[in-house]
Design brief:
single chain, 933 residues, mainly alpha, 50 helices, globular
Length: 933
Amino acid sequence: MSFTHSHFHSLFHALLLWGALSPVFACTRPERPAQSVPPTVRGPQERFATARKLYRLQPGGQGLKTMIQLCAEGRKPQCDAALALVKSDPHRLRLLHRACVALGPVYCNRLAMAHAAGAPLESGFSAELTRLNTPDSALSRALIAYAGGNTEGAMAALEPLCADGGRGNPCSFLALLKAIHPASLKDLRALTHQRICRLLPASRCGLLVEPLKTFQGSLDRFAAACTNKDPEACVALGDTLSYVLPGVAPFGTGPHLPADLAPVLKAHLEEQLGPLPVPTAAPATPGAHHYARACALKSPRGCFGAWYLAAVSGHAQESWRKAWFSVTESTCSPDRMDQCFPGKVARVAEKDLDADAELLIFKDLSLRILRGARREDAKAFDTLARWHPFIYCGKNRYASVRKLLKEGCEAGSVSSCVQYGELLEVVGFFHKAQIGTRESRRKSRRRLRLAAWAYNRSCRRGAFWSCYPLSVLYLNGFGVKKNLARSQKLLERARQGLKRQCEASSADACFNLARIPSETSRAELEDLHRRACTKGHLGACLRLSSQGKGARAKTLLKLTDTLAQLRCRTGDTKACVAAGALELLTAGLPGGATKASPWFLRGCRMHDPASCWMASFVEELSADSIATLRAAHFLQRKACLLNTSLPCEGLLPLKRRVLIALSAEDSCRDHSDASCAKVGAMLQVKGFRGYKSRFKELWGQLFPGVHAPSFTFRQHKRSARAIFKLLNTACSAGSSEACMTAHSLTEKHPGLQGAKAVKVLEGRVAELLKKECAAQKPGPCRSMALYCMQKKMGCQSLKAASGYWEKAFAIYRTRCGRKRPMDCYHAAQILDQSDPEAKNIEQVVTYMDKACWWSVKPACTYLGLYWFTRDPTEKAGKYLAKACRLGDAEACYRAGRFYERRGSASDVTKARRFYARACAKKLRIACSALGQL
């Protein structure tokens, strides 16, 4: 259609008509507001500045919505500034969710860390990431799945991207997951040096090429041998898969990944993504298939490995336990006697026969080994050395075991040489600690000389740990001539040999390498312990689980506990001690005493001194009858007889408590108030601080480097109930001392009695104390004064406390004038306690002097320390020497310090004598001072 002149004329007339009528239409239409004019588009910086002001005025309002929108638009600088500004966790999570979708894996990694700490994800968030279908979104999904404990899902998200040997962060993260959580041998075979080198810089890759080549070669050899029905190769493959944290391999004999692989991959990723998340749940431990195959091939270790993994996963264990029993019995033969012990002992333990049944089995098997052993049969002696703590060889057990170990060492058994050297070293140092006798010095020299001979034989034959104690003997000249050059050479040989053995998958070598003093950093020591733990060393696992924090440490603690309990049932006494110790680490003392006791008792029945000692402590803490207290004394006595190097100073006081309780038991049955109070007092742990220090000393000897379990200053609840019942009987009959002890128990154990009953007991205590104080008994007056100062027992007045102090002091002063030594000491104590800031120190010293004149030990100690700190003249030496003669170890040490400061030759001789007395009483600081003098 053509546009003509007439068309233009018509259009012109229409426009004129519209101009004429427009004012009419304008009158009927409202005016457009000024705001409707399109504004100038603001930039992201201006939007963020406005949002920041609004957020500070009202957090969570329009300001937060704008910041979330900026993150969703991919505005990285503004999103980073918003994350730095927002402190509220819910608001930060909303920002991270939007930033993760828009900005990629760096922000998704931060979201994954929050998710691992328990933060929830938005509904539909995973589907939103899946729809993106990019490599970055796949890595983001893998990070979040791994943080939630879904390792399989994380690998599945990344596998399609890296099937053909891809590069980049997704494939680096997939390699890291396969290195720390392999699900099968396929995952381990994928970690070749060619694939790893595509993911890492050349400088980092070069360190891993040779170790990865060695690992892949070993893995292929074991896989081929397992296919050819070699049971030990199948066990090694099971260990290879189950050794990784948080799994703990039962044996740790398989080939293992290079220790540097996972840290290098993790460091490479963290440089680009930031700290990686720690999963909330541990994946299942693989390896069961290979253990089951080894068990089918009649390998006892394969059956045990399958039993262990079933126990870890919480599945039924009965079939694997029965399989292990039957396979152990079928493989027990003269040339495989080391397989005979654990299965038979575990079967006895399952049947729960007589306590000595296990020892009878040890005796029978030991005799069978000895009958079949020839003079040069080192393998038989190796078996004996492994189980020597349990060998039952008549009355003189120590001499018999020592003789057997010596014969084995001469026959070429390396294990016998190591055990023989350790046994003689302990005995030699015990005799060396007996100061002053010529016979003890002679025995010490002979035992240490034989220990050096045994260590030298085992060191030359490849037991590199024995090179270290031998170097210590040469360093100090104990049993051998002092030789510093040879000591240094042996020390270096021990380090290098243990390092090679550790790299060759020896758990003991890794643990022993960490025990040798060196300039190794804390991280390197932790790595050695982790390597030893992952190869099945319980001591290393115990150290790691006690020092770690978080979900991974708890998982490791549980797995280690399971492994320790299973090994304990097979006759491994070190595992029994570890199982009980893990229960104490989990629940502390006295809470974990009930669960720990059965494991300690099992080890003690098999003549393990450490188990007996720990069982004695636990039984004493939870003693609810005289029979239990007697059992604690029996266990402690057995521990001291088995190993005299352990602390035995608590044995005599415990025996005294048992005898006092036995003498009062019959009278208590006749409802004698004083006797029941005495029995209850004997059942209580005497001096919780001393008890705790003795327990920690023993713990430090048994588990060096492991933090002691938490300790609450209170009796075990079972014991507290029995003690309260006895004391309540005596309290009802009018014993104020029993009432006070019962009340202190209710303060430490609130669940023993209700609030109403405790109020009644408080009234009874106050009534009896006031009555006895009025009858001129100083002890109740003193107790009431202390209660008034603490505002208890209805006595809220400090003036009343002053009155009770004066009354108690008047009674003690009168008795002191009648030449009663302890009353003089108590009078001085009251002056010392009643008003510490304004006490008359001259009167305190006067009464203490009277008490010390009559040989009251604490009074002499008080005076000695008083003069030692104020005016170290001859007075201090006189009082400290007297307190030392009366048996105070601290006073002996202070007397040594006093005479050492004076400096003359005769004074130094006196100082040496006092230090020796304190050291003989096992005061360690005195022993150190004696060595430096």
